[in-house]
Amino acid sequence: MVDAKEALVAMRSFLLCFLTIVLSESCLIALDFNSTKNRRVMVVAGAGGEEEYTSLFSEWAGALTNAFQVNAAELVKINNNPENTDARKIIESKLKQWVAAKDGEIWILLVGHGTFDGKQAKFNLVGNDVSDLDFQSWLKTHQGPLVFINTSSSSAPFIRTLSRANRVIATATKSGYEQNFCRFGGYISAALEQKKADLDKDGAVSVLEAFLIASRKVEEYYRENDRLVSESALLDDNGDGRGTPANWFSGVRINKESQEKRGADGKISRLVFPVVPLKEKGISESFRKKRTQIENKIETLRSLKKTLDVDIYYRDLEKLFLELSKLNNENEDSKNPK
Fold this sequence. Notes:
By secondary structure, this protein is an alpha/beta fold.
């Protein structure tokens, strides 16, 4: 008969294998990201209402646009000049064109004000506004990778509306009723190319890292100015439409789990880079796939640390790191043959 200890080991082994498969399948989706040959980016500066905000939104949108100059196959910036009253039509037309291409990676970054009437969230444009339901309709048939970042007030409902597998959605607020001016957009636009935002020291700033740094800066602003926090950003990349706040993360890993959450956010967004490092652009798809599979196994093993025997945990972790090191060495040798 199998004793209790053997049964426990067998159960943990099965759990590790099962979670590795699930996690690997979800994270392999991220392999579709970071291919700048098929990346189409739209940066939208919304209506400011007042000159102060108009200029500020234009500045933030400009910083985002600069970050993508050599990191996109097509880059569209929609400004908030008073005469740009056709902004909504331009957005709709361009997105329909991109979605029809089918094979592309789409990025949409909104900087401005937003509103929420209890049913529908809107992003304020010069001219007619655009709602979460509008974007849902225009992007409905898009099956490729999507990064959608709405830095406006009242932006939270965009997560619920747009969330789906293979999508990274971030908003400046956790509720449609957080309706005050948001500073999140300024901080996230600044974080994209800041070395200090590279939390895991891999040489590039991921969407997750930019989100975490921007959220931290927002918190610091309200604390240092002794003001009540009126914006709390969320990030969703697991398709459950709920989103996760920055204070759930320790470094780039979740350190808190809700009993109701089916899976943690952050696993895909930590692999997606607005500014794709040169070393990533030059690697083969085969190598990227193998590397991600190993990294996913490492992340899965780490998540099970508290349930595993210490010796077993470190033994398996060492094996995976050696496997990753061997793969990296093989890749370097292939690029620099003797």
